[in-house]
Amino acid sequence: DQQVKQNSPSLSVQEGRISILNCDYTNSMFDYFLWYKKYPAEGPTFLISISSIKDKNEDGRFTVFLNKSAKHLSLHIVPSQPGDSAVYFCAARESKRDFGNEKLTFGTGTRLTIIP
Amino acid sequence: AAGVIQSPRHLIKEKRETATLKCYPIPRHDTVYWYQQGPGQDPQFLISFYEKMQSDKGSIPDRFSAQQFSDYHSELNMSSLELGDSALYFCASSSRLAGEQFFGPGTRLTVL
Fold first, then answer.
1. Residues A15-57: tens digit of each pLDDT
2. Helix segments in chain A, DSSP class H
3. Across the interface, do A100 and B102 touch by the CB < 8 Å criterion?
4. Burial letters B3-41, b for 16+ CB under 10 A, else e
5. CB–CB of B106 and A42 under 8 A?
6. Chain B residues closer than 8 Å to A35 by CB
7. What is the C-alpha to C-alpha distance for residues B78 and B107, in angstroms, rounded to an integer?
């Protein structure tokens, strides 16, 4: 049962244009969402996160939008750069009373390729 | 800035052997999470520790065990290895002040 889904396994975008990566979730208990970027042979690198009390969070070229009613979030990268080429994972977690009990549930990832 | 350290980076074992993976969290991080990523799959949560106590458990086989030591480093012990255990094993650390989990580079385990 895939609770976090990234329906596009791959995406190609021209350099300088906007990249939009999408993520859907089914578990209504998720209240914190994260995006990670992963290069081959490296661990996931944290990019940006958003709490369910917000609908937008921005950090430089990266913006995450959350639509709670649709259980959908998206990551916008603008402008896209060649170094952005990587696999992007959406992840979600439930906030728990007991700290250290906040495992991440990952999507299957989207491979983004920026075309120079 | 210091990152999460994992060792070894690569490990090759035979079926039925044992393996020990180590994770050194970011300084002052008190929580460690272990994830397993099979080929073409998303990372799956295995187990976590907070302040040296097991805090949560996921889809971890009984053949696997883990602990967090007094210096906060963690070890994942894997026995009776099977071919299906071949995967990338990631460790992530976090703290009460920084909710995000920061990942190490992973250990690639190959079981022959």
1. 999 999 999 999 999 999 999 999 988 899 999 999 999 999 9
2. none
3. no
4. ebebeeeebebeeeeebebbbbbbeebbbbbbbbbeeee
5. yes
6. none
7. 13
Question: How far is Cα B52 from Cα B29, in angstroms, rounded to an integer?
Answer: 11
Structure confidence by residue, pLDDT tens digits, B72-96: 999 999 999 999 999 999 999 998 7
Q: 3-state SS of chain A: helix, strand, coil percent to 5?
A: 5, 50, 45
Closest CB to A43 among B94, B96, B105: B105
Chain Cα centroid distance, residue A42: 17
Inter-chain CB pairs, A–B, below 8 Å: 69
The token duo for A73 is 């979030």
Chain A residues within an 8 Å CB radius of B56? 100-101, 103
Cross-chain Cβ contact B4/A32 below 8 Å:
no
N-terminal to C-terminal alpha carbon distance within chain A: 37
Nearest CA in chain A to B40: A108
Contact between A43 and B56 using a beta-carbon 8 Å cutoff:
no
Check CB contact of A106 with chain B, cutoff 8 Å: yes
Q: How far is CA A98 from CA A76, B17, B66, in A?
A: 32, 36, 20
Of the CA atoms within 13 Å of residue A15, those in its CB half-sphere come to 6
Tens of pLDDT along B37-71? 998 889 999 999 998 999 899 989 999 999 999 99
The H or E element containing residue B46 is strand B44-50
